[in-house]
Write a structure and sequence with these properties.
Shape: globular
Strand order of the largest sheet: 1-2-10-7-8-9
Helix content: 25-40%
Radius of gyration: 18 Å
GO molecular function, one term: cysteine synthase activity
Keywords: Amino-acid biosynthesis, Cysteine biosynthesis, Pyridoxal phosphate, Transferase
Cofactor: pyridoxal 5'-phosphate
Distance between the termini: 51 Å
Structural class: alpha/beta
Enzyme class: transferase
Pathway: Amino-acid biosynthesis; L-cysteine biosynthesis; L-cysteine from L-serine: step 2/2
Number of helices: 8
Length: 298
């Protein structure tokens, strides 16, 4: 018998409905794609494998080489897993504000971690500088078309099939924008009327995984026309919804996922008989050390 490898376990994540939150919203269904069920715990497992495989196919890397990537956490963990599985040395550059769980997870997979104090912009600049000095290959999730392609060939089709083509609205936080780009492209090929909603942090909010990029750092994979509506999400709304999901639905997720569900609930107040799908991009256990789930936070 040919047993699967861990790579075969990436994707095919469940789509579940909210049972209590938003229960009375004019016949709407709010469905959550649980990407924390991937082996390394997030939606980023999909593009991590895709980016390494593409670089191999193009002859840019081979097992034993060093890979470099700037990350706020989830992509780094996913790449650390993929590198361990595929035989690469992984160097990850991350803002020093990231939680300890994220750092420990990367190191558990054998990745080398470099912390920077000047945010994701500084991490991206350092990654490119290291590549120019010959220290390794930058996969560049912000400009690598294998990132959205992973969602075009897997996440998008899964959502379409799991909703039997009934999806009317798709909601996703935007960081690298790979998730929303790939899924939007697929869903709109099936039904151009599907409304794609992207989320960015409101002014002053600091939500892991969601970014409002300065123009010079805007991911080159981002195509504005693929997003029908962009909403600002506040810190309190994202965190409060995240805690509510755990306590009322048994769905333990991160802050950006709380933001996505909050946006889906707000949309449902304006719609009738809609099928709204939101991405729950990771699990809540990688945020525990921040104290964000403490009861006194409410």
């Amino acid at each position: 018998m040919d047993y699967p490898t861990i790579a075969d376990c990436v994707g095919h994540t469940p789509l579940v409905r909210l049972q209590r939150m938003g229960a009375n919203t004019d016949g709407n269904q709010i469905l959550l794609k649980l990407e924390g069920n991937n082996p390394a715990g997030s939606v980023k497992d999909r593009p991590a494998l895709s980016m390494i495989r593409l670089a191999e196919q193009q002859g840019e890397i081979q097992p034993g080489d060093t890979l470099i990537e700037a990350t706020s956490g989830n992509t780094g963990i996913a790449l650390a897993m993929a590198a361990a599985m595929m035989g690469y040395r992984m160097m990850l550059i991350m803002p020093d504000s990231s939680t300890m769980e994220r750092r420990w997870a990367m190191q558990a997979y054998g990745a080398e971690l470099i912390l920077v104090s000047n945010g994701m912009e500084g991490a991206r600049d350092l990654a490119l500088s290291m590549q120019s000095q010959g220290q390794g290959k930058v996969l560049n999730q912000f400009g690598n078309m294998a990132n959205p392609e992973a969602h075009y060939v897997s996440t998008g089709p899964e959502i379409w099939q799991q909703t039997a083509g009934r999806i009317t609205h798709f909601v996703s936080s935007m960081g690298t924008t790979g998730t929303i780009m790939g899924i939007s492209r697929y869903l709109k090929e099936q039904n151009p009327a599907v409304c794609v909603v992207g989320l960015q942090p409101s002014d002053g909010a600091s939500i892991p995984g969601i970014r409002r990029w300065p123009e010079e750092y805007l991911p080159t994979i981002f195509e504005r026309q693929r997003v029908d509506q962009i909403l600002d999400i506040g810190q309190h709304e994202a965190e409060s919804t995240m805690r509510q999901l755990a306590r009322e639905e048994g769905i333990f997720c991160g802050v950006s996922s709380g933001g996505a569900v909050y946006a889906a609930l707000q949309l449902a107040l304006q719609l009738q008989n809609a099928t709204i799908v939101a991405i729950v991009c990771d699990r809540g256990d990688r945020y525990l050390s921040s104290g964000i789930f403490a009861p006194e936070q409410e």
